[in-house]
Amino acid sequence: MLWENLWPVVGLTAAALTSTAFIPQLILRIRNPDQARVAYGTIGIFMLGASLWAAYGAHLQDWIIIGANIFILLNLGLLAVVQFIQEKDGRKRARQ
């Protein structure tokens, strides 16, 4: 019974996170307009929101919500890994 009452909170939290996830990116761009990287905060907040949406979709047994958010998670995860590797390579080159 408790979980049934929490699912609307999960859905609202997912909506709030995915709706505000790009705020860290905007702040990064305002502070340094020449920077081309994606803010890790943006990736993390959006991934958390997509995870909650996927859980909410599983609760509703809605495969469209589940599939779309798993797709988002895979793409954002790949973006984070690629960005991390590029930044690591950039730091190595800067030291040489």
Give an overview of the whole structure.
The protein is mainly alpha-helical and 96 residues long. The chain has one domain (2-95). Helix content is 85%, strand content 0%. The protein has helices at 2-20, 23-31, 40-60, 63-95. α1 packs antiparallel against α3 (40-60) and α3 (40-60) runs antiparallel to α4 (63-95). It is elongated, with a radius of gyration of 17 Å.
How are the SSEs ordered, and which strands pair?
Elements: H1 2-20, H2 23-31, H3 40-60, H4 63-95
Key features?
4 helices; mainly alpha; elongated; 96 residues; 0% strand
Q: Compute the gyration radius: what is it? A: 17 Å
Total helical elements? 4
Largest beta sheet, briefly? none
Compute the number of strand runs: 0
Overall body shape = elongated
Q: What gap, in angstroms, lies between the N and C termini? A: 60 Å
* Low-confidence spans: none
In a nutshell, what does this entry contain?
This protein is an all-alpha fold and 96 residues long. The chain is built from 4 helices and no strands.
